[in-house]
Amino acid sequence: MKILVCISHVPDTTAKINFTNGDTEFDANGVQFVINPNDEFGLTRAIWFKEQAGATVTVVNVGGPDAEATLRKALAIGADEAIRVNATPIDGFFVAKQLAEVVKTGGYDLVIAGKESLDYNGAMVPGMLAGLTGYDFVNGCIKLDVTGSDVTAVREIDGGKETISAKLPLVIAGQKGLVEEKDLRIPNMRGIMQARTKALTILEPVAANATTKAVKFEKPAPKSAVKLISPDNLDELVNLLHNEAKVI
Amino acid sequence: MSILIYAESAEGKFKKTAFELASYAKKIAAETGTTVTAVTINISDASALAAYGVDKALNVNTDKLKAFNAKAYADVIKQAAVKESSKFVLFSSNTDSLYIAPLVAVGLEAGYASNVVGLPQSISPLQVKRHAFSNKAFTVTEITTDVKVLAIGKNSFGLVESASSLAQEDFAPSLNDNDFTVKVESSEKVTGKVTIADAEIVVSGGRGLKGPENWGMLEDLASALGAATACSKPVSDLGWRPHSEHVGQTGKPVAANLYIALGISGAIQHIAGINSSKVKVVINSDADAPFFKVADYGVVGDVFDIVPKLTEKIKAFKAQNS
């Protein structure tokens, strides 16, 4: 089984988010970047398939040279090879177009992406990629098993979960549950050394028009300070929730 | 040119978000001088949509679509959009709608913006404000294609009643057998409980509750408020509560009207997941807990003492105001 794992290179959760150039660009200055957490769950599951069932795992990112550190980390964790499509990821559709090209050329059986990225929270690339390649698609996947070309997946639904059967080839948008947090891997020295000699191929982008553009960014208005209510005066809390906040 | 909405339903009844979406669409329709068409799946009578300004319902009734199937549903919506020559196709932010929307966008060669808050800032060019960076910022996104697909954040617009004379039509789109290779084998759903996705109010517990045996008081408060129950990540990691209740960055997002955090310190990953809730209340014994920085109302004190008392107060309030 040939697996492609799509990796977003995103600011760490704890990073301060700032904008520059008149609030039209994200300010990457001093920001630590990581593998998008939803992608990391998928990557770890893919490596499990490699170890248990002899799958090959390729990781791919659409981005600039700065994303290579994130791809090397994925290699150090256990992916076999990496591809970087050398382009600025303008929007979800543009990224999906680039990935679709990689999928078609590489003939992957299983494509795993995170259900959304921590930065733009678009939650659209996996679905668009499925639409563009004609592959079947499971969104919000929290469990994944493959036997031959038969897939059993569990996805989260409002108020529960659903077990799904499907066939390869398939696109999965994954999240926590594909593996548990404790199963995530930290690269060890051997992995880091091996990662240096693994192939990282740089591809030029195919022509594609973006369908959206980020016009500007805004930070939420500063919040007014919390109103503290004494534990002995809970009537006041009920009163505020009813009369001031109007939520009960 | 009609604005198309996908009015999501479950067990033959519209979800509340369908009415919110209709209200939103009506507002854009009024501004642009057009009408609202809803596509419904396995709804025998869509007349409930008339109260929220929907002019036409295209009702698709077939056993083939009884189980959810993203590809087939997307195909249906795409055909409805073509039939109505819609320039706008709108979705709510339910799990199933978010599954379908990117497929529809690709099918219609449309630009797509999710997580949209509030009405468009401009219609031409279309610019919408959306949550990004895990609720730490907003982006104003412009969609540059002719057809536009939007997914509207829950509770970001609200219900606006607007009576219309709804015309209902049976709609029989062509269904492609190739769309049915992904099959639902079984589903597990919590019944008789408000789900986090549908809830107006969410009551959530953290490690400060000390153990799963103490969730009774949280459930009592939730039931007094008609709220859904949720928990922080450590609580689900420890197995005190099921993963389906975990809210936060790697869990479920919450965009409730009221979010009440009991014994949750407010790690940045937790806040990222719940911050689009309108009003946040925290009850915690540690006055320095970061949650107090993002909350609207806070009570510093012992949750075991405060929560049962608060439940009684809420019950009394409900009894008085019902």
Structure description:
The complex is a heterodimer of chains A (248) and B (322). Chain A has a single domain (2-217), classed as Rossmann fold. Helices cover 29% and strands 32% of the residues of chain A. Chain A has six helices and 15 strands. In chain A, strands 11-10-9-12-8-1-6-7-13 form a nine-stranded mixed β-sheet, with helices on both faces. In chain A, helix 2 (68-77) crosses helix 5 (189-197) and helix 3 (92-106) packs across helix 4 (125-133). The longest helix of chain A has 17 residues, at 37-53. Chain A is globular, with a radius of gyration of 21 Å. Chain A starts with a strand and ends with a helix. With 322 residues, chain B is an alpha/beta fold. Chain B folds into two domains: 3-180, Rossmann fold, CATH 3.40.50.620; 201-321, Rossmann fold. Chain B has helices at residues 16-32, 70-83, 95-107, 215-225, 233-237, 268-274, 291-294, 303-321, and strands spanning 3-6, 9-10, 13-14, 36-41, 56-60, 88-92, 111-116, 126-132, 137-143, 148-152, 167-170, 183-189, 201-205, 228-231, 258-262, 279-284, 297-300. In chain B, helix 2 (70-83) crosses helix 3 and helix 4 packs parallel to helix 8. Chains A and B meet through helix 3, helix 4, strand 9, strand 10 and strand 11 of A and helix 2, helix 3, strand 7, strand 8 and strand 9 of B. Chain B: One of its GO terms (molecular function) is flavin adenine dinucleotide binding.
